[in-house]
Design a protein that fits this description.
By secondary structure, this protein is of the alpha/beta class. 40% of the residues lie in helices and 16% in strands. It has helices at 11-14, 21-35, 49-61, 66-87, 122-132, 166-173, 187-195, 208-215; strands spanning 4-9, 40-45, 110-113, 137-142, 147-148, 160-161, 163-164, 199-204, 223-225.
């Protein structure tokens, strides 16, 4: 089987405040253009705004444990994944992968997955899918151009990082996971990616021309972690 390209598609791109139909149309067109060239894709979807909204409202009713918040988040990722699977129709594997303990056999060029168990974000599931299909690289499509030394939305002196190691990256994001966290790559996934010797490329997924540059082997804007 041909090497698979793993995309961790951030929920903020699918569902920033409502489902972004225009973005999904462009994303679909780009993926199909590479499928036509013989490429295969594994796409793991995040939860986005609707995930954080569900968690916030549930905790407004009664404070929940982190595992309960995770379960709410997981189900929102599955709704997003079903949407993405359906827009690729017969080119996609016939169901959304939600259990990464069993190997999937398919000749379909597109495989879509979502959240599995509490304790991490879907970034970890992207790593697990990569492990399942012996991928070497995970492309993490998020809502920032780079990994930064600090959160650029809060600190004006945050500096972009173009290349870093897993050890350095984990010093930035820490080691703990909390449901609804908004990080360029979650700390649990980072530890697993390091263990599996995977390379992660963090790109701003809203810039699909930049993603195409990366896929075409051209110069791109983003952070490489390995």
């Amino acid at each position: 089987m041909k090497e698979i390209i793993i995309l961790s598609l951030g929920g903020s791109l699918i569902y920033p405040k409502e489902i972004d139909v225009q973005y999904l149309k462009k994303f679909r067109t780009l993926i199909l253009s590479y499928v036509a060239k013989g490429k295969r894709f594994g796409i793991i979807t995040g939860g986005g705004w609707i995930c954080r909204e569900y968690i916030k409202k549930a905790n407004d009713v009664v404070p929940l444990q982190n595992s309960q918040n995770d379960m709410i988040g997981i189900l929102t990722t599955r709704a997003n994944a079903q949407l993405v699977r359906e827009i690729f129709a017969d080119l996609a594997y016939n169901s959304v992968i939600i259990d990464f303990s069993t190997h999937v056999e398919t000749d379909k060029p597109i495989i879509v997955g979502a959240g599995w168990v509490p304790g991490s974000s879907t970034d970890k599931d992207a790593v697990l899918l990569g492990k399942m299909f012996h991928a070497k690289t995970i492309i993490n499509l998020t809502n920032v151009d780079y990994v930064y030394t600090k959160d650029p939305r809060k600190f004006s002196d945050a500096k972009p990082i173009k290349k870093t190691t897993w050890k350095e990256f984990k010093q930035i994001v820490g080691g703990d996971w909390k449901a609804g966290m908004n990080l360029p790559f979650d700390p649990i996934a980072a530890s697993l990616a390091e263990k599996e010797k995977l390379r992660v490329v963090v790109l701003n997924g809203s810039d699909l021309a930049n993603l195409e540059n990366y896929l075409a082997g051209k110069e791109f804007v983003g952070t490489v972690i390995e």
